[in-house]
Amino acid sequence: MLALFINGCKREDDGPVGGKGGNVVLRVTTKHHEKLIDSAMVYIKYNTGDKPSTYDDSARVVKGATDTVAVFTGLKTGRYYIYGYGYDLRYAKPVVLGGVPITITEEKEYDILCPVTEEGGH
């Protein structure tokens, strides 16, 4: 009887479970009003499409010769929530933040845009 109860409570398969252990590379760009934000941290939560209260990993946005990105490597296909937090010093309230859910379906390199905005959503 207990085995029937346990098996009856399983969720249907939602697809691949996101996390470490694969060959996916995410290159995340943070952007505020068409300006790339290079003073930002990007956080990632594995296996969710909703903004979480804690994150599994983080990467600093680095300004390179040809791009401005935070990079996450070694990920599996699945769902993730990407969250950026940084500064746009052109504004009186310079903190910008925002997030985006993504679903990765193939093991390859992805360029992800994480739009950020002022606190309060302007």
What does it look like?
- By secondary structure, this protein is mostly beta strands.
- The chain has one domain: Immunoglobulins (Immunoglobulin-like, Sandwich).
- 6% of the residues lie in helices and 53% in strands.
- It has one helix at residues 2-8, and strands spanning 20-32, 35-36, 40-46, 57-60, 62-63, 68-75, 78-87, 95-104, 109-115, 117-118.
- Strands 1, 2, 5, 6 and 9 form a five-stranded mixed sheet that branches. A five-stranded antiparallel sheet has the order 4-3-7-8-10, with no helix packed on it.
- It is globular.
- The N and C termini lie far apart (55 Å).
Write a concise synopsis of the structure shown.
This protein has one helix at 2-8; strands at 20-32, 35-36, 40-46, 57-60, 62-63, 68-75, 78-87, 95-104, 109-115, 117-118. It is mainly β and 122 residues long. Strands 1, 2, 5, 6 and 9 form a five-stranded mixed sheet that branches.
What features would you highlight for this structure?
Immunoglobulin-like, mainly beta, disordered N terminus, 122 residues, 10 strands, globular
